[in-house]
Hints:
The complex is a heterotetramer. Chain A contains 11 helices and no strands. Chain A has helices spanning about 1-35, 55-65, 75-90, 110-130, 135-165, 170-175, 195-210, 225, 235-260, 275-295, 300-330. The N and C termini of chain A lie far apart (about 45 Å). Chain B folds into 2 domains: about 1-30; about 50-150, Alpha-Beta Plaits, CATH 3.30.70.3270. In chain B, the strands form 2 sheets. In chain B, strands 2-3-5 form a 3-stranded antiparallel sheet. A two-stranded antiparallel ribbon of chain B has the order 1-4. In chain B, strand 2 and strand 3 (about 90-100) form a beta hairpin. The longest helix of chain B has 26 residues, at about 1-25. Chain B starts with a helix and ends with a helix. In chain B, about 20% of the residues are buried. In chain D, the strands form 2 sheets. A 5-stranded mixed sheet of chain D has the order 1-2-5-4-3. Chain D has a two-stranded parallel ribbon with strand order 6-7. In chain D, helix 4 (about 140-150) links the parallel strand 6 (about 125-130) and strand 7 (about 150-155). The termini of chain D are far apart. The chains are: A mainly alpha, B alpha+beta, C alpha+beta, D alpha/beta. The interface between C and D is large, with 47 and 43 residues. Chain B: NDH-1 is composed of 14 different subunits. Subunits NuoA, H, J, K, L, M, N constitute the membrane sector of the complex. Chain B: GO terms for molecular function: 4 iron, 4 sulfur cluster binding; iron ion binding; NADH dehydrogenase (quinone) (non-electrogenic) activity; quinone binding. Chain B: Belongs to the complex I 23 kDa subunit family.
Amino acid sequence: METSVWRALLYLVGIMVFAGLNAAYLGWCERKGAGRIQRRIGPCEVGYAGLLQPIADGVKLLSKQLLVPRGVDHILFRTAPVLAMIPAMTSMVAIPFSANIQARAIELSVLLLFALASIGMMAVLLGGWASGNKYAIISSARAVSQNLAYEIPMLVTVITVVLLTGSLELREIALKQQGGFWHWNVFRLENGHFLTMWISFIIFFICSVAETNRAPFDMAEAESELVAGYMTEYSSMGFGLFMMGEYLNIVVGACLTTTLFLGGWDCPLGLTPGVWWFLIKIYILIFTFIWIRWTYPRTQIYKLLNLSWKFLIPFSFANLLITAALIKVF
Amino acid sequence: MNQYWTDIIYGGKSLLTGLAITAREFFSPVVTEQYPYEVPTMTPLFRGHTELIGNEETGLPNCVVCGACPRACPSNCITLEGKKAESGKGRVLTRYILDFSKCSLCGLCVESCKFNALRFSRDYNLVSFDKDDFIYMDLMKRLEEQNRCKK
Amino acid sequence: MSVPLHLRSDEVFVLNLGPQHPATHGVLRVKLTMDGEYIVKAEPVLGYIHRMHEKMAEDGIFAQFMPNTARMDYLHALAFNHGWALVVEKAAGIEVPERAEYIRVITVELNRIASHLLWWAAFLLDLGGFTPLLYAFDDREKIIDLLERVTGSRLTYCYMRFGGVLNDIDDEFITGTRDFIKRLRSRLPRQYHDLVTHNIILIKRIKDIGFVSAEQCRRYGATGPVARGSGINYDVRKNEPYSVYPEFDFDIPVFPEGDSMARYMVRMHEIEQSMRIIEQALDKLPAGPVMGKAPRQLKPDAGYYYSAVETARGLLGHRLVCDGDKNPYKLKLRSPTFSNLSLFGEVAEGMLLADALAFMGSLDLVIPEIDR
Amino acid sequence: MTICEKLQQALQPLFPLCDVSSEPLVKDEPQVADSEKEESQTADTPTVGVLWTDAGRYGHHLDIVCLPDQVVPVAGIMDREGFFLEAITGVDWLKRQQLEVVYDYNRLGGEHCRVMVRTFLPRNNPVVPTVSSVFPAADWHERETYDFYGIQFQGHPNLIRILLPEDADFHPLLKDYTP
């Protein structure tokens, strides 16, 4: 019992540090990546190649005054950003970083992650409603309908993976995919799954982009229409927490994609599995998030919804049926 | 129904070409000019604020206080003062104040000057903590500074 | 895609697309009465950057109004210079030498390309794409450097005088322009059309959005790319030729659909046409003086004069009334965006907020030109 | 049979008495410059009628002067002939105590023909019927002319100031306006 307390403390600190550093330095990666795509340099003044820029931003956000607009429910206004941050942090518990690095091997970890994701959506709704700003209300209404529309195909594609591995536990899923990239779910070759798996990978990736309100699906905080969406009235750390929440959601989305489809901590040639492979895969996926954001314009709310209802959901159900049939046959 | 499929195929292809283009841009060199370290050079006809021309030897302004430029200026930013020259003929410039906060750099004053006493300077980054440096920009003082640093 | 609206009075709220909003590109306020996200009534409120240029014209002599013209539409300032120079030359009967006319056309067309590039960047910014802005500004900087070399200023030009232009163009300007055209021609298919025009997200975002019929254009007096996007073949350079435009052959892009996509395609084709004009003008550039003889004290004889010029946004008309004095007696500036925006109220009804902003972006508004 | 001639036929019923004089209207324009010759103010307003002018010199083909209440029928004819309303503006003739409203019509596409319609109003209560029922473009142009000159446009849907602040009580473009 005594080691488990130390172990819990160690993991608690480890996850906090991992989450904090990631939230800060993803901002830096995004600005550097956007810069390079737009043929400019990005932050380069503060510290070598701008590496201290996130720290400077953090200090600036901390030192600013948190303005609460008049006639607004204080409690709700202050809890919304915290509510955006906590689910993203807690879902790090269930993610298997490598064979022996996992905070707690929870039995139904896939379910836990999606439950926490919908709490994150609550935060957006609360933030928009509590700030009493017309733009924020429009943006929170959009965010709810968008997250709802994209959770269904996401869950259905996850079911196809769970059907394959037979268990809802992320560690199991990852263990099943060890030993080289041909064992990964994306390229699952035996008994004919290669047909359906990459479709569900693409659908899952699109839904994770939409789930984290990232362009081209950033209808919620559409800078050029709704000024700053649900974050309009937030200054200093309220805005900071919302941004950290968004970046952590991206990290969790990337971890989920790698664990479900890209074989978790497995090395592509099956030689030296370890946590560094897991991190490399996450950061490649995160770079594609950034890459997509700086390439595409924004979709319009109705086209976005019918993209989900008319395209993604039918495809994911068909995919599910085929996978189930294949499992039955072989 | 085929509109449904063409959307998917055509859309997917256009999305991928978009990604390919930004990827190529990601790896191509930086285009921007890092301002404080790389200073841009102005073209010969660049219009900075107007400045007096001093003749080479004496360094005194060529201006004969004829008053053409204050009349030509649409936003009357030029105030001139001159006094009789000791040698009896013509007038000598004593004060030339340009209100650079109202000047629209239209060039009508430089055009109206028949005595080649006014031209556009080429400094673009004028900075000061005090607005009066621009409202009462003393071109005589600037000419003396120029002469001093030329020596 | 406008949904029939039953005006549920209790759920209608007024949203101020305020004078300070990222999508209005200036200080335009649109009072939107909204039902959910649908617009029930849209009413633009103007005057936040009104400076009364017409009274300034009456105060100074004719030459002193030239700097004002560039402050109205700073994206296509040279066309406004050209319009004012044309109307006064018409009134006072001043001859402009051949070379000056060619230089005027070259610089105006270069300025038109710069204006369309900036519209394209701002339009994509409204629709959420950030990167195209940087690519467009990369090209636009080349034009601004070229124009700075010959006119002296970068945005608000005061380059044209009655009877010609201020400075002659040198060989470096000519070779620079040819390199720029070659470079833009190589970049247009990739960075502009493949990345954006053929992108399915953009097509879905602006196709069949903000339909404006030809009849609506005529009744509201919309001209320029807005009218040409609705099938009206009207371009002042062709219908009412001025300066040396008849000597160049270029065609007018007209798209009948009338939606935002049509207006988008009109402007993209106009960039190519302007490049054609510049090349022909550079080939046929005659030698000679750039400044005709213009009287020092301009006193045009009394009467009503009108000159029309094609700017990047439409027909710019100068209605000048002279009474023989050295000041203009009365100057009316018919700015194109003033009429183009007047149809926003009627077309935006029943639209979504996101579509209305896409539609406003496709109208290519420059607010100081509306408010004068 | 150019558009302008066709238009002139259409306008004939409105201006039966006038003969089509071709010399430019400017001639009988009062020489405001030589102010020492004080004429009687209202006598020399230009005669009502249709007049050809040289487009190269003045920019418009036809110059029509009409009475204030003929403005709407003229606008109706213009609309039927396919013209569009380019601009409405006012001119303040202080010396003759008159306010003038100038309507510019032009053709969108096809053969080029610009028509200028002018009407004169007494300076003390300048009232003219609105054409915004025929051309919605006039709505804003008339509001702007009211804003700058104080000309009342009868029947205008909401004649309020468009460019100046709502509570401004002056009309800046009048010649006797001192800031």
